[in-house]
Amino acid sequence: MKKIFTLIAAITFTGVAVGQTILLANTYSLVTHPGQGAAGKDVSATQTSLGATLYGSGQNRNTGYWMASKIVVPASGWYIDSLITYGYQTGSGTVSTMTGLYCYISADSSSRPSSTVVIGSKSVNALLTSNWTNIYRTPNDAGPFVETDRPIMKTKSNLTGTIPPGTHWVVWSATGSLGSGPWNPPSTVLGSLATGTNSYQYVPTGTLVGWNGTKDGTSQIEMPFKLWGKISTPTGLKEEVLVSSVSIAPNPVFNSATVKIELEKTAGINVSDLSFMVYDQLGREVMNYSNISSSTFNIEKGNLAVGNYFYKVINKNDQASLKTGKIIFQ
């Protein structure tokens, strides 16, 4: 007998310590036929044998389309380290053409995303990286799977901040350099179409304008995402749990500056475990000091344009963000 699986948002945090970076919410399920695609890559098949017709839902920020998925934050609260979403542009090849990821956490309003932004931004590009998942989205499930037009990309954001307990929505939209999409492939479970009821799409025009539940035909479907972060204390976990302070002098920086990082005595890590990263206002990495050997080190402005930037101190062991702040280059 074939087993039918229903996909639900996995919010698992039992048995982990406060401050440990974990997967807080996860609706990722894309691979239906492992290793059966072109060149032995994985396949995410549109299950036409079950009546599916949807390759992907629109998530093009430039035309006003957004995706959202509901989360329920426990009484302890969450501190978010990053959001990962998935998308493709038809004909892109395996080098990502994604140029932007715009994301935020919204408060709930009548079981829909509200206009209240808890963390993140509707207008600031939060894209950090975008890479091929080694998965092709295919237009049927009959095989052989030779289609390569829709390589699915994983896009990672720099979304960070504390979310209080209660019902919230993860909201995102994307941009790309090609004319097609970006499109959001649905979470796909082999043998089942109805994968959940927590995902919505914002449609900007027409008779369906507003937030609508995502569907493939009449079946409710989820959209894949992963939300990484930490369980907060009842008063909200501070990201400085391992790093007591970061000082930059001078700041504004004209040519060079000295950075001093002070760790908590009980942090359990060394400065060699840290990276000092600098990002511009579009969330693009412009500086990376990943070979830190001393708590005090120098950084150089180099060819960076004058303006406001922000930095992160990252634990290389788990990629957790330990401290953020503002840095100005003059």
- Assess the beta-strand content as a share of residues: over 45%
| Helix share, percent | under 10%
Helix count, DSSP H or I runs of 4 or more residues: 0
Number of domains: 2
Number of strands: 24
The coarse overall form would be globular
Overall pLDDT level: 88
Radius of gyration using CA atoms only: 21 Å
Query: Any low-confidence stretches, pLDDT <50, length ≥5?
Result: 1-18, 233-240
Describe the model.
With 330 residues, the protein is an all-beta fold. The protein has two domains: 22-231, no CATH class; 239-329, Immunoglobulins (Immunoglobulin-like). The chain contains no helices and 24 strands. The strands form six sheets. Strands 1, 2, 5, 8, 9, 10 and 17 form a seven-stranded mixed beta sheet that branches. A six-stranded antiparallel beta sheet has the order 7-6-11-4-13-14, with no helix packed on it. The protein has a four-stranded antiparallel beta sheet with strand order 21-20-23-24, with no helix packed on it. The protein is globular and about 60 Å long. It starts with 21 loop residues before the first strand and ends with a strand.
Annotate the secondary structure layout.
Layout: E1 22-26, E2 42-45, E3 57-58, E4 66-73, E5 78-87, E6 98-109, E7 112-120, E8 127-138, E9 151-157, E10 161-163, E11 166-176, E12 183-184, E13 199-203, E14 210-213, E15 215-216, E16 219-220, E17 225-231, E18 243-249, E19 256-263, E20 274-279, E21 285-289, E22 296-300, E23 307-315, E24 320-329
Parallel strand pairs: 2-8
Antiparallel strand pairs: 1-17, 3-12, 4-11, 4-13, 5-9, 5-10, 5-17, 6-7, 6-11, 8-9, 13-14, 15-16, 18-19, 19-22, 20-21, 20-23, 23-24
